[in-house]
Amino acid sequence: MTAASPTGPRPPSALQIAREVAPGRYPLLEVFRGLDRVPPFRKYPCSSTAQRRLARETKVEVAARRGEWMYVAPHRVPADADSRWRPITARGDCIVVSGQHLRKSSEMVLYLDILHELYHVVQRSQGRELWDEDYAYVDRPTELEAYRFSNVEARRLGVTDAFLREYLRVAWVGAKDHRRLLTNLHVRPR
To answer: Given phi > 0 = left and psi -120 to 50 = alpha, else beta, which region is 48?
Structure first.
């Protein structure tokens, strides 16, 4: 994921990201202040009661690890975890973000990431498997749904295909699979 141009689209002004928090676990709205007031928050596929609980009970763990990433903490280490990905686990709903990502990535990238990961929290609350090994990452229904959700907001804010191509370039996905992900998400390849 790459940083957006300072003159490019920006997240809604209601969102204020606490970029300089120390490693540790925080309430969601302490790190992503105002997230519950941005337009897509009310569009998560759950009741308004569940949306309020999502805002109140979800935690964010800022990890003192390098890299630009964010993920929903699994309840237990997934079978496909390896030495490159040593996930932080959590009993409740927790989104893990690297401190480096929080400090250095563009606001738009962080905004799209948190929308995407919160969608996964909703999916898990519905009993869905987030790490279904029957699917490649770029074909996994839960990933595609979460990306579509954040991409709708990106488009609403004027994000270009060029930005989304870079945003959807993830370290563990090769060039061929990246093209398939773009196709699956209706983002024009170069």
So the answer is: alpha
